[in-house]
Amino acid sequence: MPSDSADYLGKLPGLAPQTSVDRPVTASEYYHASVGTSRYTLESPRYVFFVLHGSCVDAPDEQELTQKLTQAIAQVSACNPILRMRWHGSLGHSRWLSDGPLPRLRVVSECQWDGQSSAGADILDAPGLSLRDGPCAEFIWASQGQGRGLLILRSHHAVMDGLGGMHLLSELFRALRGEPLLGSNAAFSDADLMRAMAITSTKHEPYDTCTLTGAPAGDDVGDDWWRVRFGPVQPRLLSKVALALTEFAHQFSDAPVRIAIPVDLRKHVPGMLASANFANMLFVRLNKGAQATDFDGQLREQLAARREGAYPAIYDWLRWLPLRWFDYLLGRRLANFTTRKPVETVLISNMGKVYLTAFQSSIFKADDYTVSPMPGNAFVVLYSIGDEISMMISLPRILSSNGRKQALVAWLQQRFGEANGDESSSGGCNESNACKS
Q: Which SUPFAM superfamilies match (predicted)?
C-alpha cells in the first residue's frame, strides 16, 4: 500500500523559496544527459523546445523588445536557479551547482520557419547548449516580419521537463507584466521524492510489444515531428487517443501494445513549484481488441497505488556508468537501428489544456503554442487550445516511410475530426498532473 502522505512529506525538506542549487544529478537526469554522447550512436542531444507564436503588441522596435526580454530573463533566473545550473564532477559524483551563466537571448531575423514541424527548424539545432560550461537553456526571439514572431524556450532535457518549461515560460510573462514571480520552492529532487514515498518496485517481467506503424522499413536514420490539429475536445481524451493508436498498431501486429505515460510527481507535494525533471513513467499494456476502459482501468490502478513513485534500486547504480557507455547501450546505432527492440509502442505525454492568456504582455501576445516531442520512437504530445485538440507527433523515418505517416494522420482525423480553424483561447497556464484524462 502507498505510504501515508504525512510519512513521506515529513522526510523531505520543507518548501521554501530557492535561489541556488547544490545537489546530486539524479538517475533520470543522468540518462537524459547521456543521449547523444557516444560517437557510435545516431542519437542527438536531448533538448526540449517550447514555441510561442504571436505578435508584437504596439510593434516595439527590436532594441526595446530584446532589452525587456533580457531584463525579464534575469528576473526569472534569480528565483528559478535551474536556469543557471552547471554540471560538476563525473559518474556517481556528478552534481548540479547554480554557478553558471544566465540563459542567453538569441535573436534570429527574417525567420522562415513556421514552428509547426521539424522541417526547416534549423534555429533549434545550433549553437549547442553546454551542461558543464553553460548556458543550459536559452530563449530565442525569431522575427517573422509584419509584427509576427516566435518566442522560444530551448533547454537540455537533463535540466527540465515539459511542465517545468511551461512554468518558466509563465514566469517570463509574469516578469514582462511586472507581476510577482512564483519562483521555485523545492530543495529536493525527483529521486529524493521517490525515495521518501518508498513505493516498492514491481518485479520486472519480460515484455513483447510492437511498433506503432508496422515493421521498420528503409534506411533513413532520422526522425520527423509535426503538428496535427483536431477538434473539438472530447471527454476522456487521453484514453480515446490511446485506444486509437492501439487499434492503428494492431493493423500490423497481434502483439500487445505498450503505451508509456509520463506522470507528474509534483502532485504528491501540495504547493510545490519546480522546473526540474519531476516525472516518472507508467506503462499500460493493451491486447488486440482492448477498449478504452481497459486503458483507464490499468492506469487508474497504478495511479491509486502511486506506482509512478517507485524508485528501482538500479537507479543508484546507473550513474556509475560513463555517459557515453550508457548512450551506446541504449541508443540507436547503424548496427541496430532497424532491429532494435522497442521499449514501448508509443509514448503519450498529456499536457492538458494550454491557456494562451498566460503568455501575453505589453510587448508580445501569444496566439498559438507548439512543443517538440522527443526523437527515437513514436512520441505524441497531447494538449488542447480553446476547444481544439493538438497532437505533436514524432516518428523515426523508418516507421513513417511508405505513406505510413499519412495513414496515421488520416486514421486520427477519422477518430477526432478536422480542426475548425478557430484559434481563439483564454485563461491561464495549466501546470497540473501530466497524466490527466
A: CoA-dependent acyltransferases (SSF52777)
